[in-house]
Specification:
The complex is a heterodimer of chains A (about 400) and B (about 375). Chain A is an alpha/beta fold. Chain A contains 13 helices and 14 strands.
């Protein structure tokens, strides 16, 4: 009796599994297109995620539109995945290895930050998988001469001078206090700014590498000693090379210490909502440079369509690097559309590409940096706790 | 030769303790370095800079002292380095945050300039109470679930240490996951308490400049931190020295077996020790969150390490030592960077710790609860 019941249960279970399996299996009429994967490496969680998510959403929009046939028929379906690095160079290596060893991945968007680019770059390059960043701006990344790396934006040799020039030529303070976090991005950017201000004839007091960058277990909140240093310097302008999570708190603590007449200037690492939220009213008049413009101000029909589609899909207007990463996605889509569905074929396509995107024209030099004439740096200013577009750097500086 | 003859005739010179040479030498070295630093414009020469570094050092030092007490008391009673104490501090910060937001409905949006008067006093008192009780409760639960089974089975010191590290990681990651989203495939969203990103702390008390010392503004929140810390530290000291429960803690710390034979309830004392340490850390968590305007799942890591250092500096197991160690560490960290970059803050603090331990391996006041 007992064994009969057991047999009955087993048969019922097998039947159920079969029914569920049949229901879940694809019908023969479903698309037989091959699927290829492209991964974005960035901080999708943690204190700096707000610098990454708008760009991801731009790229995701492009890939979804491509799969829906907006850019013409594709030979494959593109699956776009998120790989969360939390922005840390110590987190990225195992994830980069996992993706590199999976042959279904044919390209990488990002990594978003310089530190993680330096840590993940050797893995991607040795695996021969193209990786295209539009926001890792540390210039020295190009010294690695990675064949599969591309930077679809300006670097800190272009952004740093814009920051330094704004201080020396627009703010014209008695002296500038240049400081930074300990990230490869922040230290390099602050170094370039220091040189620029000095070359412009300004006076600089520098304390680079003064702040520990946030990571999984460390999130510095106490900048009292640095604020006292700034106070002691008497400088009326501060340049901070680093990211929003620390910059917002630094600005707040500067204001609390009475440094209300000191202007903070930073790079693209601070140009987002996290800074404005953290700094609140004390962030007013903060200036940020960015190799990213305001796509919502563009009059081109394609850009306007992008803004409309992006806002409809995500419920918010495009943010930092949304347009730039949409363009990076389009580079991949165009390569795939042209029949390049292997890693090496895509790399070879990018080497020769000449594509007019939403934000700029994309063609690469031998070192896989953008052709200099394609690079533009923009200024943004915190007005009522929102970064407001001031314009292209050359025009703002010319207007004085 | 002269010395020999003095010894021969029995003349005794007063002996100068070797420690005095050590401290005197260190002070002379610091003074010399400062002299050259100021002369060569490496160190600030204006008084206001030094006052400013001292104020920030004292503020941080009192917070370290409040956290350090939990480390030192638990070590005194159990010889356990409770590394999860930094997360007990974090729990207090979030509890205070939610007391402000949920109990009183105060947010930065509806009270951008904070509140004032008696209402402020009530909100702060209740917030401190909730934060302290939440941390105290969390510490007691941790003791019951993580450490008591080890004590029951007579586990090795290493097992305690690993358990402490595990409890620390568990708590911090638990708060990371309490972000209002679904996890582990469970069909519901987890409560939204913390999450991966910092949570804004309601500024119930606006930072206003109350007075100035050498032109350095002293703000209301700094005064609050120092006042609350001093009040709680004095009450704790009286509790340890004057009350029956405090005597019990000291007795267990000195000799648990004899204390047990004398009728002291060891389990009760251990629970009380965790609870009292938690109370102090919770209150510190609220003050820390309020001053630095945010709470985060990983916020306990750095203050926890520093507070543990403060406990060792003062003499681990020694309540007054923890207070002294905390205040000194805060001052050293801040005054130490006056002539260097802020990236040297921890280097200087730990150099001083190593230096002190070389001369006094048991810390400044020695290892003894209530000593």
């Amino acid at each position: 009796m007992r064994s009969k019941t057991t047999v009955l249960r087993v048969v019922t279970l097998v039947a159920l599994v079969a029914i569920v399996g049949a229901a879940c299996s694809k019908s023969p009429s479903a698309s037989s297109k091959k699927t290829v994967k492209i991964a974005e490496f960035g901080a999708f969680t943690g204190p700096v995620a707000q610098l990454v998510i708008p760009g991801y959403q731009g790229a995701k929009l492009a890939f979804d539109q491509a799969n829906a046939g907006k850019f013409g028929a594709l030979p494959v379906t593109i699956q776009f995945t998120q790989e969360d690095t939390t922005g840390s160079g110590t987190v990225i290596p195992p994830i980069a290895k996992k993706v590199s060893q999976d042959p279904s991945f044919i390209g990488v968007v990002g990594p978003n930050f310089s530190g993680e680019s330096l840590a993940g770059g050797p893995i991607f390059n040795s695996a021969g998988i193209p990786f295209v960043t539009a926001s890792a701006t540390k210039t020295a990344i190009n010294q690695n001469h990675w064949a599969f790396w591309f930077r679809a934006n300006g670097n800190d040799d272009e952004q740093g001078p814009a920051g330094g020039d704004y201080i020396a030529k627009i703010l014209k303070p008695n002296c500038a206090f240049v400081t930074s976090d300990d990230s490869p991005y922040g230290t390099a950017l602050a170094g370039t700014v220091q040189t620029t201000i000095t070359n412009d004839g300004g006076t600089v007091q520098a304390q680079i590498n003064a702040v520990q960058t946030s990571n999984g277990s460390v999130h510095p909140t106490d900048f009292s000693a640095l604020v006292t240093k700034i106070q002691t310097s008497g400088c009326k302008a501060v340049y901070y090379g680093g990211y929003d999570a620390e910059a917002g708190l630094l600005r707040t603590q500067m204001t609390s210490a009475g440094l209300t007449d000191v202007t903070l200037v930073g790079g693209d690492g601070i140009e987002d909502t996290t800074y404005a939220t953290e700094a609140k009213a004390s962030g007013e008049a903060t200036v940020a440079t960015c190799p990213c413009g305001d796509i919502t101000k563009s009059t081109s029909p394609d850009a306007q369509a992008f803004v409309k589609d992006y806002t409809a899909k995500w419920g918010v207007a495009p943010g930092i690097y949304s347009g730039e990463y949409y363009d990076v996605a389009r580079l991949y889509i165009n390569a795939i559309k042209a029949g390049n569905i292997t890693r090496t074929a895509i790399k070879n396509y990018l080497v020769k590409v000449n594509y007019v995107g939403l934000t700029k024209t994309y063609s690469f030099q031998d070192n896989h940096e953008l052709v200099p004439s394609d690079v533009k740096i923009f200024y943004w200013k915190d007005v009522n706790q929102t970064f407001t577009y001031l314009g292209e750097s050359s025009q703002v500086l010319a207007a004085g | 030769m002269a010395v020999a003859s003095e010894q021969q005739v029995g003349i005794r010179r007063p002996r100068i303790p070797s420690a005095a040479f050590g401290w005197g030498g260190a002070a002379a070295l610091v003074a010399l370095l400062l002299f050259f630093g100021i002369r060569h414009h490496v160190c600030p020469s204006n008084a206001s800079a030094w006052v400013s570094f001292t104020i920030t050092g004292l503020r941080l030092g009192f917070l370290y002292a409040m956290i350090a007490l939990g480390y030192t008391m638990v070590y005194g009673v159990l010889q356990l380095l409770n590394f999860a104490h930094s997360e007990i501090f974090m729990v207090g910060s979030f509890a205070g945050l939610y007391a402000f937001k949920t109990l009183f409905g105060i947010t930065n949006a509806n009270h951008p300039n904070g509140i004032g008067g008696i209402y402020l006093a009530v909100v702060l008192a209740v917030g401190l109470l909730v934060a302290a009780l939440a941390s105290g409760g969390a510490a007691v639960i941790m003791e019951r679930l993580a450490y008591r089974p080890l004590r029951r089975h007579g586990a090795s010191r290493l097992a305690y240490l690993i358990t402490a590290i595990g409890a620390s990681l568990f708590l911090s990651n638990l708060f990371y996951l309490l972000d209002g989203h679904s996890h582990l495939g469970l069909p519901f969203n987890w409560p939204r308490i913390a999450g991966a990103s910092p949570v804004d702390y309601p500024q119930v008390m606006k930072k206003v400049i109350v007075f100035r010392i050498a032109k350095v503004p002293i703000d209301s929140q700094t005064i609050l931190i120092v006042a609350v810390a001093i009040a709680m530290l004095v009450v704790l000291d009286l509790f340890i020295r004057r009350t029956r429960a405090g005597k019990g803690i000291r007795a267990v710390a000195e000799d648990p077996e004899t204390a047990s034979l004398m009728g002291v309830n060891i389990n009760g004392i251990v629970v009380m020790t965790f609870f009292v340490g938690g109370l102090m850390a919770g209150a510190a968590g609220l003050l820390y969150g309020m001053f630095f305007t945010q709470a985060l799942f990983s916020m306990g890591f750095v203050p926890g390490i520093k507070a543990f250092t403060a406990a060792v500096l003062g003499g681990i197991g020694n309540v007054r030592g923890a207070v002294l160690g905390g205040i000194l560490l805060g001052l050293i960290e801040n005054l130490g960077v006056a002539c260097t970059g802020t990236q040297w803050q921890s280097v200087i603090a730990f150099l001083v710790l190593v230096g002190v331990l070389m001369f006094r391996p048991t810390g400044l006041l020695g290892e003894q609860v209530g000593g």
